[in-house]
Structure formats: C-alpha cells, structure tokens
Amino acid sequence: MKLGHGLGLLYPPFARRASTPAPTLTAVSPDWGLVGGGIRVDFTGTNFTGASGATVNGQSLTGFTVDSPTAAHGTVPAATGSTAVALTSATITTPGGTATLTNAWTYLPASPSLILLSNVGVTGTTTITKWADQSGSSNDFNQNGGLAAPALITNVLNGLPAVRFTSSGHQSLELGDGVAANYPLSRIVTASAYTYYLMLIWRSPIGTNSSNSYANEAVWSDETNGVFGYHAKSSGPTAIAYQFHGADLHADQTIATSTAYVASVKYDGANLKHWKNGGSVATTASGNVDSVARNLRMGIDFTQSIYADLDLLAALAFKTAHSDADRGVIESWLGHRGGIF
C-alpha cells in the first residue's frame, strides 16, 4: 500500500480520526439539597473523560472533578434568589457533547428540622434500631425498648425501601433517647407555625374499635395523643384523620389500601390546612401544637388492636409555615421519588 511521501507518511490516505463519543448522564446523587447549596453531588454516566463542567438548575458546579470515565463530582451552588426549585435538570459537558438528566435535582427550603428517607440512614433490617435524621438537626429516631421495632422492607415502591410498622407488637421508634426532657416535640415543630410531610402506604384494612370513633394508631404520637399525624378510622374504608393534641381536629381522608400517598399539613398560626397528593383537602381554624415537653414516638397502634400495617417512606418537618409554592416543591419531589404523581 502506498503511504504517500513527506509528511503524508503519518497517515494512510483513507484513515479517519476516531470521533469522541457522546456522554450519557444516568444519575445524580443525592437528588436534593437546601437552597443554600454547598453540598457535594456525584454524577454517574458514561464517557465523562475530558468533561469541562456540569450544572444543576442551569448553575455550574464548583470544584468540578472528573473521577473516571463514568463518575464526576462537584459542589452545588446556592439556588438563584434562595428560591426552592422542584425537579430541575442536571447536565455534564464533554468534548463529545452535553448530556442532560431531567428531574435530577430539587432545592428544598432552608432549615428543615427533620428529614427521614427510607433509602438512607436506616440501621438494621429485620429489626431497625435507628433511623437517622438527614437534616443536620440530629433528630434521629431510635428503638429504645419497651415496644417492638419496625423492619426495613426492600423495593416497596418503585425500587424504594420502606420502614414497615405493623400492629403486631406495638412497633415504634422514638425521638432521641426517649426522654421527653431531652427530646421534646418542640425539636420537630413549634406551637405557632409549622409544616410537615409524609410519604406513606397503608398496607391492610383496619378492624373495629368500640371505645372511640378513631383508633389510636398514630404515625406520630406523644404517647398520649396523635400529635403529628395519622389515625386510622375505625369503620368503612381505610382512612386517616389528622389529630393534634390539645385539640380535636379531624380531617377525614379516604385512603385506599396499598396505595402510596404524599400528605402534608401546614399551620400558619391561624389555620390548619391539609393536602393529599397535591390536592387541597381541608382547612381547620385551629391547630397549634401543645408546647408541653413530650416524648415523640413514631409508630403504630399504641393502645388498640386494629390490625393495620403502615409503610413509611419519608418524613419531613419544618418549624415554619411554608408558602404554598414551597409546599408544592417538596410534595413534587417526594411524589417523584415514589412515582406517585
């Protein structure tokens, strides 16, 4: 074969340089952070060699580093205008082009008092001993004895695990060390204003309860009342009612068995508002939480035998009343994580 002459000896006449392959972006972890930024985020994909930068919400990561052809990382900047943003895109740019992953990142409002996620921070499987708070507030829930512990169940909802409480053995986890003086309810919410969110699944129908129209089966309880949360209705279809100690505030919502929901409550100092899967449900003209120091338990069926199971996938709480825009951001993020809406 004739290779040519002079400088043409470097290449055969029909040789072609190999093209740079296009990158792909398949995952961003974690998929959330606070509006103040500053958190490390890891990108996973292919063909990252030579990447010049990456973004979330159109903003460049600082300290961007390519770790390998399939991994890179950087630090997320603060959200523009310190505004919460739901399910924004992430990108990575290489010599082969730019890859985009939609619904990759969410900026949550600042200063949550509690973030529990079933796919991180859970110690134990058949017997959970700790569910670690991811908010930085150290509001971990522990199994402190006295009541049985829940179990971690894998692949409950679109690949996500869940912390499963059953009515067998009065299962619970307690805030902190279980001593009210050390870990009162006020660590999670304030009496004047708060917002909280749960992603949950009822797993079985409930039985009857002759002593009260609402069985004492709380997701959040102060050992005396259903402080924070959810009670199972004693007849008819499986349902939940919001009830707060110091007040008898019921807002019935029919909940189908084995269906996932994102539910949220906001108290703005005047009105207690409830939502389920993004839709407004009810407004009640009261709802402040008793400020007395109480030990907060998370669990199921403290005093009744009503035969319902509960899968809890996430819980978030804030000591402020969110705007409806911020509430929508958090509900969208949780709903997307579970594939609910």
Total strands: 27
Domain tally: 2
| Mean pLDDT, all residues | 80
- Please state the CA-atom Rg, rounded to the nearest Å: 25 Å
Helix content: under 10%
Tell me the major beta sheet. 8 strands, antiparallel
Q: Architecture of the largest domain, CATH level 2?
A: Sandwich
Strand fraction band?
A: 35-45%
CATH top level class name of the largest domain: Mainly Beta
- First and last CA, distance: 64 Å
What is the ordering of alpha helices and beta strands?
Answer: EEEEEEEEEEEEEEEEEEEEEEEEEEEH
The parts where pLDDT drops under 50 for at least 5 residues are 207-216, 231-239, 245-249
How does the overall form come out from the CA principal axes? globular
Tally of individual helices:
1
The CATH topology of the largest domain corresponds to Jelly Rolls
Oligomeric category:
single chain
Classify the secondary structure makeup into a structural class: mainly beta
Please tell me about this protein's structure.
With 341 residues, the protein is mainly beta. The protein folds into 2 domains: 24-108, Immunoglobulins (Immunoglobulin-like, Sandwich), CATH 2.60.40.10; 112-338, Jelly Rolls, CATH 2.60.120. It has 1 helix and 27 strands. A hairpin with a 4-residue loop joins β23 (260-267) and β24. It is globular and about 65 Å long. The N and C termini lie far apart (64 Å). Residues 207-216, 231-239 and 245-249 have low confidence and may be disordered.
